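pinned: reference chain
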Amino acid sequence: MTTATTGIEAIGLVIVPTADQDRSIDFYERIGFEKRADTPFGGDSRWVEVYPPVGTTGIALAPPRQGEGVKPKEIGVSLTTADIDTTHSELRSRGIDVDEQVSRMGDPVPPMFWFRDPEGHSLLVVEQR
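pinned: its structure tokens
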């Protein structure tokens, strides 16, 4: 085991490829995120960051790389909630594409469910115990 440090201290942002940033901003605001950055960059592009109400790691809704489209994928982002059933029900009531049911595998795995953003990307919500 090495004890050398690289200087990396935290996860700052998760980059999510987004073809329609305005539609994605609306989606993330509907699930309770807030937009903290919306800045022009690279000509016609915008740098957009959205954050949950608690925590310091956000999601950058960035245009896809030049010449590439957006392909739906599992983003690998896990969001936490104190009450999985309430969160699942609330997202469903807001018209969010969520799994039909909360997955309950039993201890030590916490209850969880997936939801999809407008691009078809999947994110996971896990009950924090």
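why pinned: The chain is about 15% helix and 35% strand. The beta strands are 13-17, 34-41, 45-51, 58-62, 74-81, 97-98, 112-116, 122-127.
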